[in-house]
Specification:
Length: about 600
Amino acid sequence: MLKIMPQKPPTKNTHLISWIEEIARLCGAEAVQWCDGSEAERKRLTELAVECGEVEALDPQKLPGCLYGRSAAHDVARVEHLTYICTRDKKDAGPTNHWMDPREAYEKAGGILKGSMRGRTLYVVPFVMGIPGSSFNKIGVELTDSVYVVLNMRIMARMGSVALKELGDSPNFTRGVHSKADLDPARRMICHFPEDNTIWSVGSNYGGNVLLGKKCLALRIASWLGRKEGWLAEHMMIVGIENPEGEIAYVAGAFPSQCGKTNLAMLTPPPSMAGYRVWTVGDDIAWLRVGDDGRLWAVNPEAGFFGVAPGTNSKTNPNAMATIRRNTIFTNVLKRPDGTVWWEGMDGEPPTEGIDWLGKKWTPDSGTKGAHPNSRFTAPASQCPSISPEWENPQGVPISAIVFGGRRATTEPLVYQSFNWRHGVYLGATMSSETTSAATGKVGVVRRDPMAMLPFCGYHVGDYFGHWLAMGKKIKHPPLIFHVNWFRMDSHGKFLWPGFGENLRVLRWVIERAKGTAGAVESAIGYLPAARSIDLGGTGVSEETLERELLRVDKKEWVDEVISQSEFLRSVGEALPAEILEEHHALLRRLEGGK
Ligand code: GTP
Ligand code: SPV
Ligand code: MN
């Protein structure tokens, strides 16, 4: 056994052991530490991380088991321009991904990995994405030099011995390598090698760049596998809505980053809908398969939430507030002198002072934000008061409706229904949203974000649309597909719709459409809610505002929209399925027909 493996490996899996030796040698790690996922290990690693300053402890009475982390000032979001799909043939990555030749990527990232863990321990983090014991799950192993990453991974995924047991002697696991290296943005790369089932991430210590089970495995690699194996890996929340009669219908929703998935998955019914209950199944990722009964079934492959902190408070999301009271890691929020945390849009008055996300003394007069707009909480899903009893069911939950949505100040109505699956795929394929601080770059720019997967689809986006169309043919009882927009604004730049818990009124219409009990009127873009079929009691929104503003389909805006869509569709190139183009032309014809 090598010197770098003083600890006896807790597995006989030679594929795993020899790969770890190879990476540990490449990185020059001083020691290798296998993680078992135990409580004792959590305590030990927490002490270590606090001691070396990687995280700070919070007040153990007010926030038991909670930690505070700050990432480097220039390392606070996903980096799409440094995220690569490394396929042998460039065509397989498609026009929406950054591509790098696998040889070049291994060489470049390998050059950064080389010796990067000198004096550091390499942690071996085996994890399961999906429900342990299910034939639908995927095993990954992340090798990382960051204790912060280990502590986050143990919340976000079922981690440690459970994964090794599941893996057994199989070579079939995603090989994830993460090194903070020197955190130099010029030496930062997030590389995916779907043909090798491998991920190499260097030079970052933030969220989606480094928690490799999440966006890298459960979306980019999984979407590639899903196409091969006949299922879908999607950037979707999953929620169960129980009506006063006790019937539960499940809805999956794809919105781009920071566009409301976590909030919708945990919403609290408004007082006038008190007979309803909401059950959270997942807040970010859904794996969808066709069941034996011909319906589409969804599983949340994660075990925790990596949620947006700013704007979260006991009015907008009381379930999230209850979830993050303990065993939570807060990243890039403000730390108060009493050992608690704060962010913009939290309850109550801003604190009179604190240490901001940059580690600087902050007061409300500083003129800067105390928490970074993309600051996050990492919390166990099991602590969520609204967690569904079905959330760990290996079969998943049956989906009645899929909602696509984006952040659009204009054009897109509050809600409409597609005419059929194919038209629904078109709605997803042409979705757009204003960019947010979840990724580096300009905020507030409208861009196409097909199915909210623009940064996460691990293969050619044209083939991805084709896969969605093919899936539709395999689903005997397909969910209905809708488009929603909580973010439409009036001429003064104010949101027209109150959003958050009130969104249940829209989901109610969606579910009742799926049951065939709610009314709709046909428009050029799809079916809109019939007059008075969305209950507005207590919202402060009038029927007139709903009809004339929230549900308005403005012909001029829509013709512009279609033009903007065609630019994107053209960029997809030859792989664009003819059906999508046909839907596009049909939309234009309907708009011109004045419907
Ligand atoms: P990722 O974790 O980045 O994938 O994001 P997400 O889709 O889960 O977004 P999340 O629910 O965390 O919401 C992001 C931001 O949108 C927060 O600042 C919320 O306060 C805000 N938001 C969520 N739902 C609504 C809504 O219905 N209306 C309005 N106006 N804002 C909302
Ligand atoms: C997102 O950006 O969509 C997230 C956060 O959910 S991260 O894990 O950083 O990608
Ligand atoms: Mn997300």
